[in-house]
Amino acid sequence: MKAVQIVKISEMRVVELDKPVVGTGEVLVRIKYVGFCGSDLNTFLGRNPMVKLPVIPGHEVGAVIEEIGNDVPAGFEVGMNVTLNPYTNCGKCASCRNGRVNACEHNETLGVQRNGVMCEYAVLPWTKIIPAGAISPRYCALIEPMSVGFHAVSRARVADNEYVMVIGCGMIGVGAIVRAALRGSTVIAVDIDDKKLELAQRIGASYVINSRAENVHQQMLEFTRGSGADVVIEAVGSPATYVMAVDEVGFTGRVVCIGYAKNEVTFQTKLFVQKEVDICGSRNALPADFRAVINYMETGDCPAEELITRIVEPEKALDAMMEWVANPGKVFRILVEL
């Protein structure tokens, strides 16, 4: 079968692999679409320390069930549209014992710590197969990244009388904006791209700020009537946006960190104490977050087509990645159609 492989830094090619064979308790899926995510970009650029090259990327998946192994419970059918839960959990670490399997100490995500599924077929345990109803495989590939944003909103315990600032309007930020708006909060979206900010308003943001062109602090004071944000969700992963999150959260507010900053971040730590701010991380997503995204997409309100920047065949994956490297702020998702 055909697969895309990141061979070494800045080198990607199409390779041939054996088609996997379904086993007991497993499901064989025909992969239709796989999205490139930020971790794949970092792998390609040599900035992902968790990856050992060569590796098959891909964990944002739209697929169709092709074969079902023995001892798979009812509820799975050949031809069913599905997405995949791409994380593993050991069941023994502190996170797993506490029921937060998304943050397993020994997690191996598809395309990161182990080979992903940017290939024509994949076999997974039935527990990692998520039925997606009438959602097309094309749009199923958007479920996982949006679920990460949904999970961050749950971590933040967002309520309907709160101001929620979302820094970064990429795919994960989009998920956070949607989920916070669905919970009835007043969402303030921040980005440097006006096109992304315009979309943010259409999916639920009440206010937007272009941080390159506007004074973020002044705008935040105006929008929140001087109180600052009750919740700030950092979905970029840069020192500047981490500092912004702490600066703009209000007293006794909550900051949720999704993005990985590649460099050290310097804070005025007195703000942690003075504001008595709660700061927490948010990693991956839980099955409930996947279901919540599916429920949202089934309403028909999701502008899914606008979240797809480009669709390419495997042979054009390298060209698409190079374009993303050149213009990182202009991409929501690049899908590879297999």
TrEMBL record:
Any Pfam family matching the protein: ADH_N
Gene Ontology molecular function, alphabetical: oxidoreductase activity
CDD domains: Zn_ADH7
Alcohol dehydrogenase-like N-terminal domain boundaries: 24-131
Domain of life assignment: Bacteria
Chain ranges of the Alcohol dehydrogenase-like C-terminal domain: 172-297
The entry's keywords: Oxidoreductase
The keyword Aminoacyl-tRNA synthetase is annotated on this UniProt entry: no
SUPFAM superfamilies named among the record's database cross-references: GroES-like (SSF50129), NAD(P)-binding Rossmann-fold domains (SSF51735)
Annotated protein name in UniProt: GroES-like protein
Source species taxonomy: Bacteria, Pseudomonadati, Bacteroidota, Bacteroidia, Bacteroidales
